[in-house]
Amino acid sequence: MNIKTIHNVYFIGIGGIGMSALARYFKFVGKNVGGYDRVSTEITQGLEEAGIEVTFKDDVKKVSPEFLDPVNTLVVYTPAIPGDNVLYNYFVEKEFRISKRAEVLGQITESSFCYAVAGTHGKTTTSAILTHVLRETGTPLTAFLGGISENLNSNFLLEGDKITVTEADEFDRSFLHLSPDIACITSIDADHLDIYGDKAEMERTFHAFAKKVKPGGKLVVRYGLPLKGITYGMEEEADYAIESVKIESGSYLFDIRMREELVAGVRFDKPGKHNLLNALAAFAMAVEGGASPREAADALAGFKGVKRRFSYQLKTDALVYVDDYAHHPTEINAVYQAVREMYPGKKVLAVFQPHLFSRTRDFMDEFAESLSQFDEVVLLDIYPAREEPIEDVTSGRLLDKIDNKNKQLLSKKELLPLMETTDAGVVLTLGAGDIGMEVNKIREVLSQRS
């Protein structure tokens, strides 16, 4: 399939963060773009404002006629759509050209110099930092991000077609469609066990991704992972290591030792040791790609963050409100570490919406342990996404396992009254579901309080 000869591109699941970036790409290069998703969101509204047709009913009659031409239309879908999706089955039956998002992304990036960031945690932030650093050091590039970069106010950038930055998503083994020149693996924790079955199979697949690096390319890996490559970490044995960390006015100040060279006086504003490591990974990738170490280090100070990744919604002396996409126990632990480091002694309320029945089942005890660390915990019902309920897997069962006297299960409509009365000095909303839709309302109530 030659993407250049395709005129129409139709997306099933266009509201997904990765799908929407691809949709923006095709619109930018002059294709006729449309798509379907279940509900209207900020992402789909942004696509419509960009001139992309979006429908919210799984009905062929709602699709514009030009997209029903099998000769001139490419259909792109996300593996997260259910098997009974009417549109998907129609396009299959009518023998349209149909590709997964990852396959299309692989074709777009294969002719460029490709940076790809993989890992069960940190890939969105790391790829956004890398995009920022490359851009600030004068590199024209295209970027496909899995979150909204606050520097770009977008999940997509097209300022040059010779270099690309993309996330390498492990879900459904999607990243095996990529062939990067420089790849990074930030972490290999067990996740997506509905796809992989067990952690051993997941590790085997990450090894397979590592082998996808082009001949002569480079693999950057977190120190301690069972992979051979250029290492980064807090450990002095790493090829790229962070040293002499201090906190001043809510920012990290530190040095980076890269083999025998020291880059001193680096500043980075995003809290948490996990974000320090994300910044170091992006720095290492940029330098291995030819960026000046000093210029790359200086660029880190200007990174604003990624929406819903330790995203400050309110920050006063009396009250702090942070929203984060954390949906895995390791990510919740990282948020906890960052909050305790930045705000020692303050009472912390964590509102968590579990994401997927299968993930909640597979990590029930780990979730309970992570959430028990907070001073007060509120659970919402499980966000199902693509899944049907699983017997005896509920937020109520998770709540019972949390070792904390200050815990409760609430509906979303009960959150605002809670925010009016809480005495917490730090409020967190955590999760990858639709809890993000509540953020503006929560911020407004807390702002009135503060």
From TrEMBL:
It is an enzyme of class 6 (ligase). Belongs to the MurCDEF family. Residues 117-286 form the Mur ligase central domain. This is UDP-N-acetylmuramate--L-alanine ligase. Keywords: ATP-binding, Cell cycle, Cell division, Cell shape, Cell wall biogenesis/degradation, Cytoplasm, Ligase, Nucleotide-binding, Peptidoglycan synthesis. It catalyses: UDP-N-acetyl-alpha-D-muramate + L-alanine + ATP = UDP-N-acetyl-alpha-D-muramoyl-L-alanine + ADP + phosphate + H(+). The keyword Metal-binding does not apply. GO terms for molecular function: ATP binding; UDP-N-acetylmuramate-L-alanine ligase activity. GO terms for biological process: cell division; cell wall organization; peptidoglycan biosynthetic process; regulation of cell shape. It comes from the Bacteria. Its EC number is 6.3.2.8. Residues 308-433 form the Mur ligase C-terminal domain. Its main location: cytoplasm. Pathway: Cell wall biogenesis; peptidoglycan biosynthesis. The keyword ATP-binding applies. The gene is murC. One of its GO terms (cellular component) is cytoplasm. NCBIfam families: murC. Residues 9-110 form the Mur ligase N-terminal catalytic domain.
